[in-house]
Design goal:
11 strands; 3-stranded antiparallel β-sheet; 6-stranded mixed β-sheet; alpha+beta; elongated
Length: 281
Amino acid sequence: MASTIDESNRRDFLIIAGNAFALVGGAITLWPFIAQMNPDKGAQALASIEVDLAPVKEGQAITALWRGKPIFIRHRTKEEIERALGRRVDLKSGGYLIIEQTEAMTTIDVNTGSYVTGRNFDDTIFKTNLEAAHAIVRQLRLRNLGGIIILDFIDMENAEHQAAVLSELQKALARDRTKTTISDFSALGLVELTRKRTRESLANILCEPCPACQGKGQAKTARTICYEILRELLREAKQFNPREFRILASQMVIDLFLEEESQPLTMLGDFIGKPISLQVE
């Protein structure tokens, strides 16, 4: 029996209806994402929800029919998306990938992690790189990464191991419908890959640059902020003549001024001859 989606499920179903079924509009294609997550789940997901394909305007109620749990819960789609947005991708063997996406290129670094089993260290490296080759291609599809992609496999001295890893990578890429070109291992042990951009990457669609660090991935320490405030107070005191100065800052910065940096703050207050008060932002 069909029922109108309640408020708790409305957002997920609007996203699914708006993208997988192209009813509400939007750029994210979550339907292929579910299919790539697990090919068997593609058919299951289609059977788990039926949406009236009549034209639907944004904000209009959607009548849906589903069996069992909502699609995002049944197939753990939210958890998969969160993993696809992370920098680190763990491998079953204990190794992991570090994926860094920038404007110019994407770099993928392979690490052994806790995986140190095998006859020798070379064998461990080889097996980790083989597993990483398949994981890399899966991440390319899930994240829809395009442009120049640099793969930094763990260094292999054995030329046969390099050839085997490159072969596994090419086999995995053969199943990718997006046009891709791949180079041999360079003298530095890097593999350069170019993948056609078909649409925005998952990260560019779902995320925006952090307002605190402007997308750099780093924020100034509380101590650095303290020193910048002290310099700014000195500059302001030379230009203006207020009755007092008030520092409005985060709890961490205020705590430093009350403890470790209290003496420099007191000395500055005495130097400029003005009281300085603190307030948590």
